[in-house]
Amino acid sequence: MTTLPESPIELTIERLGQLGEGVAQWEGRTVFVPGAFPGDTVRVRLEVQGKVVRGLLGQVLTDGAERVPSRCVYSDACGGCDWLELSVPAQRSAKQEIVLSTLEHLGRLKRTDFTVRPLMVAPRDWGYRRRAVLHGAGKGALGYFGRRTHERIPVDVCPALTPVLTALPGKLAPLLKPLAKDTEEVLLLAEGDKAAFAVNMSGQVTARHQEAAEAAVRALRLEGAVLVPKEGSARLIGRPVLRSLSPLRPEVPVYLRPDAFAQAHAEANVGLVTAALYELGAKETDSVLELYSGNGNFTFPLAGTAGSVLGVESSPVGVDLAQRSAREGSVANVRFVQGDARKVCDGLVAEGRSFDLCLADPPRAGAPGLAKWMRALNVRRVVYVACDPASLARDAAGLVEAGYKPVALQVVDMFPQTHHVEAVMSFERGA
Questions:
Q1: Domain 92-123+265-428 carries which CATH code?
Q2: Is 81 a catalytic residue?
Q3: What is the pLDDT of the chain when averaged over all its residues?
Q4: Do 361 and 385 touch, CB atoms closer than 8 A?
Q5: Prediction pTM value
Q6: Which fold has domain 9-67?
């Protein structure tokens, strides 16, 4: 192995890697440089991190053509938005290429083997995030993790958040000081002009914790809060469940809670749901298995065209919210099962069940074993919604190996100013 130089060196960035870092070459080795973009000439100090060489950015000597000024005062240190200094057109083209190249290199799927649809662009690329995860950042402050570190960066305002949340980190932090030493995370959530928060606790909820949270809700005129103990039931304060409308089915309410998952970009989520339904192509005679169904984000639009939908979700909160939506929206052709997707699918296979279609929206780790279940449940078409290109590539390769042919890929720019992206990919079972 070549010995790394002790002094900083100069590199020219060639492209962007899967994790959004700049990629350069040094003496035949690939170097990943966080915070650098194609065309930049940079001075870096090389360091081995695991199996890769990273360049710790010291100075940008020459700006690449797509580098732009940041609109956020925290961008030098904060790890929340890693592409603030990359132009929006460059972000969009890079995201499409990152997903395609990951499918090629990790999944061994050629981009010519399926239809690649044009990138679906988010309606807003600034001030769009309706949810956030904050951490204690010392002296009673709240903030985000730093770039590629677990260092806490205090933040008073966050312009990436929707207007009702933008100044909430700085306003909420002093009011939650009585909870600070027992807090693991503070979760913010907005729907329109309404906001709520949750606190994931390191232990049990005490009367002191509840009094502080109640005072914060009153002082900031929030809808409510949820205190989530390490073990046991959550404590609800006020009305932390926020009402929204189901994408494509506004007659069905959808409920959000700050301690449960929700897509970060509300407007782009409509496009994501539309893309998934289009790729699935459910008809009124089809039975649909929906894995990782959450609060019903995809479920109720699906139920509007399919014969029946069985939603599987591990979060009890998500299932409760979805069942409430089904009741209030009078949606009779859906059923929800609370449990781990792997165990539920194994049980469905053991019962001899079969489904025409499957929509899976797994967490970042993906859905290992998905291909096995699809074959055993006789599913003819699968739509996979992915927030991680590597997990998509791995699970797509498994589906192809099990006899499913890739049909189409739709990349959705759900997270402007970051390298994160959503992708919708469809697969059809071969004869």
A1: 3.40.50.150
A2: no
A3: 95
A4: yes
A5: 0.94
A6: OB fold (Dihydrolipoamide Acetyltransferase, E2P) (2.40.50)
